């Protein structure tokens, strides 16, 4: 009996070492990236395996292999406990944003509308927007959110909308890679002299090699666009949406570095945004709010379910006056 358990533990250790080695190819192979997206789940399984290795008194190198793989995954998960400190100034304007993937085939529109009211954010990105939901938003949210830009893609998996209490200008629908996967760019006018660029986006899920490549190319074009927008007027940029990407993927770090973005999820723990149930055994963090220097995160909250397999993410921010080319603060109404 004990020998059978010991053999099973050894097989599990070998399997986890193989999976960890495969994960080194995550920035080139779609299946490897899916595996590294499950780092938390791997940690949850590794812990009892390591404990069993100790109880069964297996040779030390079996235990060492398990501990090494565990440490490797924990190193990648460190962002969950280490907040990122952006470059900010003194003058500021508060802004709350929310991203919610409502799921195109979600039959419970009432729950969706209730969750959007509950989030009570100044700017809301609605991912997988359908024509039915768009009509309800126009009729029931126009008083509170008079500024609304959208595009529909029936059956809706890549429909997207942006609602705002603040005026929107320079709104545009853009395709960072595929015409069938639109994103929204807009400038949110916070005051007479201060604004912020907002991008709502939803790349394809990396469920095969083609979609993996399309998602990555979407992210690279988006990253360059973030840099371009900042270079135009120095105003900060906020990116929000379902990126179909976890913070523990190497591609996430590459995207952040290329775009100069910081994550609101950094330092906020491991609570998942997908799959709409509490606890991590069944969840991933793939719904994001990211921002450039000039924005500071005050709070981040993952709200309750609304019939979708995603949960809304609400983030409280402060937007600061940008730096001029000479390094001094640009004068704004909040100064």
Features:
single chain; 8 helices; alpha+beta; disordered C terminus; elongated; 335 residues; 6-stranded mixed sheet
Q: Tell me, rounded to a whole number, the average pLDDT.
A: 87
Relative helix content: 25-40%
Rounded radius of gyration (Å): 22 Å
Poorly predicted runs of 5 or more residues: 324-335
The helix/strand class is alpha+beta
The order of strands across the largest sheet is: 3-4-2-1-12-11
Main sheet characteristics: 6 strands, mixed
| Beginning-to-end CA distance, first to last residue | 73 Å
Shape summary: elongated
Task: Quickly count the helices.
Answer: 8
Bin the strand percentage. 15-25%
Order of helices and strands: HHHHEHEHEEEEEHEHEEEE
The total count of strands amounts to 12
Task: Please outline the helices and strands.
Layout: H1 2-22, H2 30-36, H3 39-55, H4 60-76, E1 92-101, H5 109-119, E2 123-127, H6 131-140, E3 147-151, E4 160-164, E5 168-174, E6 183-189, E7 195-201, H7 209-233, E8 237-242, H8 250-259, E9 262-263, E10 287-291, E11 295-302, E12 313-320
Parallel strand pairs: 1-2, 7-8
Antiparallel strand pairs: 1-12, 2-4, 3-4, 5-6, 6-7, 8-10, 9-10, 11-12
